[in-house]
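Quick sanity check, Alpha/beta hydrolase:
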Amino acid sequence: MKDIYYEITGKGFPILFLHGNGEDHHIFDHVVEKLSKHYQCICIDSRYHGKSIHAGELSYHQMVQDVLQVINELELEAYDVIGFSDGAITSLLLAQTDTRLKHVVSIGANTKPKAIKPFYRLTFYLQMICLAVFSLYQKKARLTFQLYKLMLTQPQIEYQQLHDISIPVLVLAGEFDMIKESDTKQIAKSLPYGILKIIRHGNHFLLRDAYLETMQEITLFLEACHQEELYENMSSTTIEDR
């Protein structure tokens, strides 16, 4: 059995889907239903999530390595990523290291734990305190404790690191996101080809609570990014027909 579980739906240019903390690939079910008509959708369960292995290091660095393992296993020469929350953080780290990555949709990413609004950070700390006792004898509580700890200690991305990402990145966040808007805006500003979209009245969970608006932005971005590729295919077909 492979360490990292993934499912493939549809045919076309590959898009990897990376979910957030405490979730699995099913958060993208509705998105995949739409996009799989035009793209090959590869949905991954992160380590310690879903059907993937529940062992090893729990870090964003390890998440990047796990995604690279899947990419290498599938022998992808080029791919896009749609990442949410932890998955968005992973996508930004991937974009710094893997030249096969061509376009990124980043939903609700943050560069540092302090970019999470104080109210939410306090909530996470209080939940960790409550979980501490149960963690002594309950496996699920230990995992939840570690997942909260991940959010409160990682990532540690400097804005300057984002300057080297030379691919188009759609930076999405909700107007009432748990991530500080200043961090979201600075992420987009630091990216040479960053496009910022703040979804009005949206929260952190855009694919759940602002699905139509979010999907419109994602679809338009992907269509624009792949327009040249589609044009080349159309031109090739026209020449052959002649």
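Posting the structure with no commentary besides this: Confidence is low (pLDDT under 50) at residues 236-242.
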